[in-house]
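Lab channel / #folding
Pinned by the channel admin:
"Please post every new chain as: sequence first, then the structure tokens as a reply. Keep commentary short and put observations after the output so the thread stays searchable."

First post following the new format, from NK:
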Amino acid sequence: MTDLEGLFRTAGVSGFLHAVDVDTGAEVTHRADEPVVIASVFKVALLVEFFRQVDGGWLDAAERVTVTADRHTAGPTGVCVMADDVTMSLRDLAYLMIAVSDNTAADTLIGRVGLPQVNAMLASFGLEGTWVEHNCRDMFSTIVEDAGQEEMPTDPALIAKLRVLDPAHTNRSTPRDMTRLLGMIWRDEAASAASCASMRRLLGLQVWPHRLAAGFPYDDVAVSGKTGTLPTVRNEVGVVEYPDGGRYAIAVFTRSYGTAQNQPRADAVIGTAARAAVERLRG
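Reply from TO:
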């Protein structure tokens, strides 16, 4: 049996993991109920509430929205780095929010969906350990305020000041809460069957191969997920589906001991630990 604590320690991180068979409820846990900083993983909750509002007729997924160039939220992908005004549908903003973790797309959707509504949905699902404190713009504003600089800090003294790295003051959850939410999406319980299928499709389009997907390098195994990254924080939650029908919701959250921005071992252990957990579930 793989020592999960040993895997995380060797990679230079503290790790938190929950893996569960979506259909049977069999589980593997490692600090699964401790509060964690979720970073961009919060976008999964926003995705769910967006589609629930579409189901209820409060939003039209095809409605076109113009995002002006002077309203961008900081970020390295998608609309965040585009030079001109962009017009697209709400559902295409949702695609960019998930596939490339576009912060501007997420904040534009939050403006229509509402954070109070996201948190009300989470409470209605019984996900008591999960709370979305702020949008991406406000999250980055606290980093600038706390660090006293525009650039993402790597100085340990500055990182120690960041409120976004304290689950009590930022977007937070637990590994178990996140796998519960994913399980609801995969069992068509989070919204209508059509909307859950749309959410599964978008999560399957995420482009990042270096975390969860790295643990399952097989053509016949599908990996869907959403990453989250902040200084010292590397996360991914997702669902792994095998050709025999087995499907496993996994949430892995890590905090690195070092403060460097590039830490390939910390990225890779997310996939390694997830693979070990799934193999344990599959017997």
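NK: The two ends are 10 Å apart (CA to CA).
TO: also worth noting, Residues 22 and 183 are 5 Å apart (CA to CA).
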